[in-house]
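Journal club prep, notes for RB
We'll compare a predicted complex against what the paper describes. Inputs for the heme C case:
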Amino acid sequence: MNWKLSFVMTVITLSGLSMAVSGCKWDSEEALFNTVTCDTTSISYSKTIKPMLANSCVGCHNSGFESGGVSLETHKDVRVYAKNGLLMGTVRHEPGFSAMPKGGQKFSDCQIQQLQAWVNKGAPND
Ligand code: HEC
């Protein structure tokens, strides 16, 4: 092997390595970031829960299009499913529940914790 080729190979190997290392670093920082910043205390229906459901659920669950007979458009609607366990069962993908959002990305651990925290405080219209 001539020196030019071996130089190129070294560069490729090194850049591959540094990408792998920085990839790991990024992952762990992100994981740390998520646990540190998951705020489950200063949450409210209007600031936290409503936007979450509006983004991922209300498209299929509104008064004009109630998939499965479920609307999640108003606080009154959402409270029903918060109270009867269907909201948490579906977003946690628990056995015996339809996994929601249907066909979409499961909520993050932090979003699920925030929903649970709101349900635990009685699902108020705050
Ligand atoms: C793409 C459309 C779609 C999206 C988005 C969606 N759903 Fe559903 N949902 C459905 C359908 C369809 C059903 C009827 C049951 C089934 O087919 O699984 C349903 C049923 C439900 C039920 C009743 C389950 C039962 O066992 O009776 C709940 C509660 C529910 N969804 C909550 C949610 C929540 C919370 C979100 C957002 C995280 C969401 N859905 C997002 C389509 C959707």
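Talking point for the session: The mean pLDDT is 85.
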